[in-house]
Amino acid sequence: MFEIGLKGAWDTFAVNVALFDQTIDGFQSNVFTGTGFALANAGEQSTQGLEIDATWNATENLTLGFAGTFMDPVYDSFPNSASGDISGQRPYGISETSTSASATYDFVLNGWDAFVRGDWQYEGPSNYFDEPANNTLIGEEREYSLFNASAGFTTEGGIDVSVWGRNIFGEEFITTAFPSVAQSGSLSGYPNQPATYGVTVKKSF
Fold first, then answer.
1. Cα gap 97→120, rounded to integer Å
2. What's the CATH architecture for 2-203?
């Protein structure tokens, strides 16, 4: 494995960038046996990619952030998968693109420190399985775009109060899917967390 990186920081802007190339010999993957899962040696799996993390203080009160990972994972050698030789195929559950962006606005409210924040998370398409037959059966790839937001304040007495919402627009997707045990042709999976809202109160001593 090798990684080459660059870090820079200026008055209002900071960025970290890294290029990487990673190869794993003897990479292990789960193979479904019909009644359960067993580890199988995939031989070799490699990933090349780019990571970036940047922060910009756009104004005295507004901070913008961006982070992203862009990569090209592949099974260099996996001749003994449940579906035969899938060498050259992208491993399941790994997206080529993952990004997040955020905006935070800090201000003073009646003498209290306050903030408003929004963030967006995107995960590009990825397969649920290494097996092409199961991917065809589920009929979709995992991909999601989530928006979260929060706002709050801190009193002079050290009490933090925030209201927040996660997955505000109610994005729906299956987080994990797997063949149902002893039920050929059937799949099971877990849905993501729905739109969720709450209030958090903390006290600092």
1. 14
2. Beta Barrel (2.40)
Q: How far is 79 from 88, CA to CA, in rounded Å?
A: 10
Answer for the pair 143, 125: CB distance below 8 angstroms, yes or no: yes
Q: Where are the domains of the chain?
A: 2-203
Token pair of 88 as six digits: 């050259």
Q: Quote the CA–CA distance of 163 and 148 in Å, as a whole number.
A: 11
**pLDDT per position in the chain (205 positions), as tens?**
789 999 999 999 999 999 999 887 766 666 655 555 556 666 788 899 999 999 999 999 999 999 999 999 988 888 777 677 878 888 888 899 999 999 999 999 888 999 999 999 999 999 998 888 888 888 889 999 999 999 999 998 889 999 999 999 999 999 998 888 767 778 889 999 999 999 999 987 7
Dist. CA 40–CA 10, nearest whole Å: 48
